[in-house]
Structures are given as structure tokens and as C-alpha cells.
Amino acid sequence: MSKPDNIRGHSGGVSRRHILGASAAGMAFAATRVYANPAGDAPTTPDKAITELQDWSQALGDGVDAKPYGVPSKYEAGVVRRNVEWLTASPQSSVNFTPLHDLEGIITPNGLCFERHHGGVAEINPAKFRFMINGLVEKPMVFTIDDLKRFPRENRIFFLECAANSGMEWRGAQLNGCQFTHGMIHNVMYTGVSLKRVLEEAGLKTNAKWVMPEGGDSAAMNRSIPLFKALDDCMLAYAMNGEALRPEQGYPLRLVVPGWEGNMWVKWIRRIEVGDMPWHAREETSKYTDLMENGNARRFTWEMDAKSVITNPSPQAPIKHKKGFTVLSGVAWSGRGKVSRVDVTIDGGKNWHTARLDGPSFDKSMHRFYYEFDWNGEPLLLQSRAIDSTGYVQPTKDELRQVRGYNSIYHNNAIQTWHVKANGEVENVEIS
Ligand code: MTE
Ligand code: CO
Description:
By secondary structure, the protein is mainly beta. Among the domains are: 116-284, Sulfite Oxidase, Chain A, domain 2; 304-431, Sandwich (Immunoglobulin-like), CATH 2.60.40. Helix content is 11%, strand content 28%. The protein is built from seven helices and 24 strands. It has helices at residues 16-27, 31-36, 145-148, 178-182, 195-202, 227-230, 397-404, and strands at residues 7-9, 94-95, 116-117, 131-135, 141-143, 154-161, 185-194, 210-215, 225-226, 235-240, 243-244, 254-256, 269-275, 290-291, 297-298, 307-312, 324-333, 339-345, 353-354, 356-358, 367-375, 380-388, 417-420, 426-431. The strands form six sheets. A six-stranded antiparallel β-sheet has the order 1-24-23-22-18-19, with helices on one face. Strands 5-4-13-8-9 form a five-stranded mixed β-sheet. Strands 6, 7, 10, 11 and 12 form a five-stranded antiparallel β-sheet that branches. The longest helix has 12 residues, at 16-27. The protein is globular. It starts with 6 loop residues before the first strand and ends with a strand. Bound molecules: ligand MTE and cobalt (II) ion (CO). Cobalt (II) ion binds next to loops.
């Protein structure tokens, strides 16, 4: 699939000679060599022994009361959500991005979950909060948060991906970092009540076919969700990763719509109306539809297709050693189930290797993968390809564009390429 002379960098191309070098280098690698002969290439820093007392062992440290709510080490101050200033006109209708290259495992810490708001963060006093169900129900109902906490609880881990994740990359490699190309995703454990249970309490009328969640923020965001999904695995969540939702993630209550585009996961939810037809709200007509080459638009593109990205190395996380044992890592997910396999190439698709999936594997959740190899210090073209439990294979950018054209913003789940240079720096590129 890779034509070495047809590579496009985010800043306008890389020379043919450069990429030929990368491909040739890649051919020589074999994972087994790493384990058979690690000597010389071992991941250690030969240094002198520790001979003097270091600063931190010579005085007492802070007591237990110093930080009632703990925060990361000051040396981790660079691990933050970031935005792209030119992308949006105002910070209230904007987005920032999860620093995927700085994270491990599959759980996103609450303070690092990307935020996407259309009207800023609503600050809701939980004592005044109310949630209502109306429309085609036997008994319209209003709940407080405490009422909802008297329903049986569920704990589930799901990814939330904005449909616009990777949207800036449709027309070519653009943003230099997986935080920016893929960071409109987070993966947390939600606690709450199943939406089915609450709808049953209100009693669905026989002609009920759709539900419309509506936000209590200034954007009053609303979407149409078919009843089969509402009764399947949706949740009304009040906690994430063990603590109350953060204000920016919808405190005190948000809708969880597993595997479906993030826009439907209404935050600060104040109401669900039950109806017999979709509402055709702004967010499912003028937005969150996909304009095809023939001028028609796809609508109701709810499911998030299988996708993956290599988080390390990546442009914000270059390789710091000259050569030798190297850990490649990344994340993969699918809106249709589990990720059953991830393939990795380091030579732009000439050779594919099965990555090692590590950590828990849940439906519609992030999965963590690794590929360890012995780097000979020459340029590389890194790609990962996810395969989900339905057998769906993540497409190349060319394959995706053949079907969807160049006009789209949403639902770009194409394979990402990183170009690793000999000095360890990494750049966002495309190959075809
Ligand atoms: N809900 C409300 N009420 N208002 C919003 O602006 N943004 C939506 C969705 N729910 C939004 C909302 C979009 S587009 C996405 S991608 C997700 O929330 C983002 O959730 P997060 O901020 O927790 O990452
Ligand atoms: Co979104």
C-alpha cells in the first residue's frame, strides 16, 4: 500500500530519499530479536551509582493536610488539556483535547478529559437541579438527583468520542500531535442508573419510538435517539471514575450513549421527551451530518467506527534514545463492541505485526496496545490498524475518501501515520 515517494507531511512533504531509508530500515526489524539478544540495547541508562544523599531525603516533607484534594507532581505540569486557538471563535463554543500521549492504561483522569461545549460550562446547584420525563409516557415525572440515586446503580466503562475527532485531517495531515488529531476522546467509568429503568418508571406509551434528551446549559442541546438504543445500554450518570461528574462533564447529570457519537451524550441533562418521530434538531441536520461527493448528506450516523492511534512515539512524544529497545504504545476502540486485534507497522505498511493488547477489555471502551521492537536508529513510518469484535477493519485514509470524499468533517476513523526521523522527532504525515 505504501508508495514511498507519495508521502505528504503536515508542513509540506518529506524527501523520497528520506522515506526510502525508513522503509529499508523497517524491513530488518523482527520482534523476536529484541528478546533473544537484548544485550547492548537494554533500556537502561548506564550511570554512576547513587553515592550522595539527594535533596528530598534530607528534610521532612509536607504533612498529610497539605492538599485535601491531591494534585499531580509539579514536574507533571505539562500534562494538560490543550486547545487549538484558531479552530473556534469563542472559548464558550469550543473544544480542548485530551493529552493522549501522556496517558497510560485505559482510564482518562477526570481533570484531563477533553471538553466540548456549545454554550460554556453550566454551573448547576444540585439542590435546585431537576430532571423531567414527558411526552409519550403514562406518568410524566420530575426527579431530583437524590431521587435518581434511589434507583439501582450501574458501573460501566465507556469511551466518549466526539464525531469531529480527527475532523481537521480529512484533507491532509495537519495537526502535529495525537492530542490534537485524536484527543476528542476520553474513557472513564460511569456510575448511574440505566435509562431503561427510569423510562419504565414513567411508563412508555405503545406508540413511543424516539427519545429527545435536552441539556440545561445555555445551548439547550438536544438530539433524537431511537428507543431501541435508549432501552439498550444508555445511562443517566452522576459520577465518573468514582467521584461526582466534573462541572465541565455535565454536573450533576449527563446522558451516556455507549459507542455513539459524543454529541448525543447530553450534559447537564434536564429533560427527556418521548415521541413517535425524530425531532430533526440542529445538531442532527445542519451539524453532525456528512456531506458526500454527490451532494447528498448522510444523517443519523450514530455509531463510532473502530479506530486506533499510536500515542507513543508521536509528535509530542518523540523517541529520546538513539536506538535499541523501544516501546510503541497506543489506544484502540470501537463503538460496536470490543477491539479484538490491533496490527502495527513501522515501515509504512510493508510488514504488519500483531500488537500486544494489555489491560481490561470491555465493550465500547478503549483498549491499550503495545509493540516492542529494536530500533536501529533509522527513520520509521508508524501506523496502527484496529479490528473489532464484528470483524470490521479500520480503513486507510484513501479507502475512507473513496467512499466519503473530501467534504466531511465527522467520523474520520482512518489509519494515522507518524513519520519518525533519525533524530527521534515525529511528524504527522500521509502516505498513499
Ligand atoms: N451537552 C450539552 N448540554 N451541551 C453541549 O455543548 N456537547 C456535546 C456533548 N453533550 C454538549 C453536550 C458534544 S459535541 C460532545 S463531543 C460531548 O458532549 C463532549 O463531552 P465532554 O465535554 O464530557 O468531553
Ligand atoms: Co462533539
